[in-house]
Amino acid sequence: MRILIVSHGHPAFSIGGAEVASHNLFRALGAMDGIEAFYLAKAPAALPRHADTPLMSLRQGERETFLHTEAWDQFWVSNGGIADLQGAFADYLRHVRPDVVHFHHVIGLGVEAIIQVRSVLPDAVIVITFHEYLSICLNHGQMVKTSRNTLCRGASPAECAGCFPQYSPGLIFQREMFLKDHLLVADAFVSPSHFLIDRYKAWGLPSERFTMIDNGLAPQAVAPARKIAPEGRRGRFGFFGQISEFKGLHILLEAVASIDETVWGNDATLSIFGGNLENQPPVFRAKFEQLIERAGRRARFFGSYRPEELPRLMEQVDWLVMPSIWWENSPVVIQESFLHGRPPIVGDIGGMAEKVRNGVDGLHFRAGSREDLADRLTEALTDKGLWQRLRDKAPKTLDLTGLADRHLNLYREIIAGRQAPTKQRLARPGRRKSA
Length: 435
What we know:
By secondary structure, this protein is an alpha/beta fold. The protein has 16 helices and 16 strands.
């Protein structure tokens, strides 16, 4: 079986959860007997394209290719560079001849890429993995309202026009129909959380096409527990991830600054590891820098990190904190916290609440509340046995072999369903809803 994984970025140039997840799947599938895996990623925006073709190798791997795109339309999730899709992209598909084309995002590539695959390879299985709510929500796919960053609990043309008054409800409805027409060309949808599946079902995509498959983690050395004195405590907190206003770092820094000195003491610290600050709006950057300065010795910002550095960085912390103010989906960093035995403290919404069992393997706080987060940090600092109790209950994470097996089962199920007699397909139209 020949399988093509398509991504909106390559983790060598863009360290995001979706990029890492897509490349992990490519690697996992490529290690399986009888599978030929290929990886096509959108080329980095800062990289000039070749004069004659938008395709390039960048020497990442024998079967890893980049596609340069320039005519991206955020509103329509669309690529205006149809000539490149019908030319170089189509030629690439004919050359590779995949049996399965699996999209992890169409950012930069556009939903037209899905149509192009179906046109060039009418018999190929097409699968789309959703990593957030980009098709549903105009606000960067976060489902957070533009006024005061409050959570959006259900999209509609009228509600979306309230956030984006420059677009009429009619135009937003037209966008919705346009995206659904393109997405429904796919045979199946994958999500690493049930929460995201429920959101897309409520938006109108058919439930029988969805399968839940968690993200898989690449092999890595497990960070040992930080050495502490016999009377010491587990007081070092860590944040790992992209730096943006939706990640809730302002809430975390305000919570840290508000804890009484008698509780925080001289041994507690917050370490922030993450990139992308330079790409944030100036107002956010200024506020973040002010909060870091106000936190003083309690918090330090270490900047971006490479995936291979994570185990070493995890050695420096005891707890992982995820204060996101948007729903999240299935943050890879939560799986990483379980793998390395660092209990997570997360907001009680979306994929975070789904993945972390409150009081069992981690702690929940009321999302967006610095006061409630401060209470949970205080609990972590003062309950001496809590860290070990939560650590002992951490669930087993999915490895790359399991990740490949679950996806191959899905692909083969779709192919078998196509080959089944018509009467049988009509009697049993759906595929499994969980994996």
